[in-house]
Amino acid sequence: MIEAKGLTPRQFLDKVLEPDKESDHICWNCEFLKPVIKGSSFPPADIIGWCMKIHWPYYWCVADFNVVKKCYAFKQKG
Ligand code: SF4
Hints:
The protein is 10% helix and 15% strand. The protein is an alpha+beta fold. A 3-stranded antiparallel sheet has the order 1-2-3, with no helix packed on it. It is globular and about 35 Å long. The protein binds iron/sulfur cluster. Iron/sulfur cluster is lined by residues 26-27, 30, 32-33, 51, 53-54, 68, 71, 73-74.
């Protein structure tokens, strides 16, 4: 059981929704990444998640192989 006391809603979600991948993307620390969750079989294998900002109101697939190191829209997770 995950202890929720003292965590912000965002920190709690990060603990509960464990990402499927690890990489050097700056997106992992960004407010706008919606990661592929561990055990999920639906999304293509070559993405780490979706960016909810760059092509708003649509989601942009963040590719596993094309590592984002800098981004004009980056916003630190709160
Ligand atoms: S805004 Fe930039 S850093 Fe944030 S998830 Fe989208 S692509 Fe990644």
